[in-house]
Amino acid sequence: MKIYLGTDHAGFQLKEKIKAFLLEKAFEVEDCGALTFDKDDDYPDFIAKTAIRVSENPNSKGVVFGKSGAGECIVANKIKGIRAILGFSSENVELSRFHNDANVLSLGSMFVDENLARKLVRIFLETQFTNEERHIRRINKIKELENNGIN
Question: Which of 16, 30, 94, 99 is catalytic?
Fold first, then answer.
């Protein structure tokens, strides 16, 4: 499975640590930036690129980082086909995969340390979607909203 990573300056250090962790686990990783620390960069630039790459590669996943993770989650969810969640606990990440087939995990470096980030990323990547009819039905309704908007 290919994993796409994206961050701005606020999540840069955590991204670098998680990138090393994923490479140790033999995942194929593409870093969509920031590639260097720049305190004046803008997260939408890197998060959109990451989410687009995930949307173009259906069997992939994305992990994005920021200070709170909230803005990053918002940006990722603007890209068609993305179901991004803000990860803060094992349970919320697991349920996001079981029920929502989430494909992007957003982590806030202000709230998630390296150890918790490793745990959440592992859960995100290892937990399989249930494929239950009710969850497929709900995801299809989300896709319909993406395609047609709200009338």
Answer: 99
